[in-house]
């Protein structure tokens, strides 16, 4: 494995564009702000300068856990796909293929991270390589399988731990018995991750085994109540100690996004209206994560912890994943695009408006609805802003590939671009959906936000060690 130069020297920033100057109607403005945010996000990562085979090669700095690195590479794969800027591709490849990451079994179950890896962590690495497969991102190493085969390995690893002995199924949160938390808890992110990965593999390969598993996970999740049958909120989980009869009714942004995109993929793949309806209901269910206040209308928040300053280092990354999967849902189910943009465009503007901190003047804060930088910078807030803003370009990018179009590509001769080029007036306007009367009038939710936040939040924070 070769060494790479420092990531934050990888991209030329001579014409840097401050996030606060974002114009959501301009492709070049969105791309240029995304370039700034990508640079500042990757500035938190130095693992690429570590010694070969070091555990730090693919990891992010403490106190962030290893799973966040997997999520970061998914975000950076999106960055390249949306902007065509290859500045970070070599670093992404190095991380995804690092021996201390991918493991000898090519399933992201490395012994080096056994002490912290859970089933939910594994999903985020699997999601990243699934994105690589769906876009024919190059995989140059002949001794390592293709991205699609690696994603299948992750799927097989997850399904091997399906626990039919307790509560008629479901994945436990954790994998290893010596992990202090989660060996009796079946959480929505682990099961939602398996659901989404199965859906994406079904669409990419046409193999009905994956489709059957997606249906199986959905049915189990609905049966135990982590998918609310009325509100379509996604709750945190159930415990086998209570026979999965008591649902922990706290909700986090990212689980709604994970289930939503899985349902949208199945709608696209099967053509069945029931999956499109489920995706739409999940979007409605996610409505309570968006402010209804007149000064911050439709701006995303992590409602379970953000207003109380109780978010831990995992939770401050969650909003980015909801943004990621909402944007991707708008591709799989185009009829949902207007409703999604009515939420994510205000959120993108609000996120950009609070990226004014630090010595460089474009470090991002956590609370977008506040309207100003809150002095809470970090990798998590930077990733959240990046994912929300770069997604504005998704409809100018190719959709995920399927079938024979998914190929093993080995050529990594990236074509560099001028990161801060300004497009001509005829090509700069972003591809904007034409709103209909229905979408313009639509407003998600109507829930009593304050009451819902308090339901189950104390229990959930205790489970996360925050009470």
Structural description of this entry:
The chain has 467 residues and is mainly α. It has a single domain (21-401, 428-463), classed as Glycosyltransferase. It contains 17 helices and 2 strands. It is globular, with a radius of gyration of 21 Å. The protein starts with 26 loop residues before the first helix and ends with a helix.
Give the SSE layout.
Layout: H1 27-42, H2 66-83, H3 89-96, H4 99-102, H5 119-134, H6 147-159, E1 185-187, H7 188-205, H8 208-224, E2 237-239, H9 253-270, H10 273-285, H11 318-332, H12 337-353, H13 379-390, H14 425-428, H15 437-441, H16 449-454, H17 457-463
Antiparallel strand pairs: 1-2
Helix pairs in contact: 1-2, 1-13, 2-3, 2-5, 2-13, 5-6, 5-7, 6-7, 7-8, 7-9, 9-10, 9-11, 11-12, 11-13, 12-13
Short structural description:
Helices cover 44% and strands 1% of the residues. The protein has helices spanning 27-42, 66-83, 89-96, 99-102, 119-134, 147-159, 188-205, 208-224, 253-270, 273-285, 318-332, 337-353, 379-390, 425-428, 437-441, 449-454, 457-463, and strands spanning 185-187, 237-239.
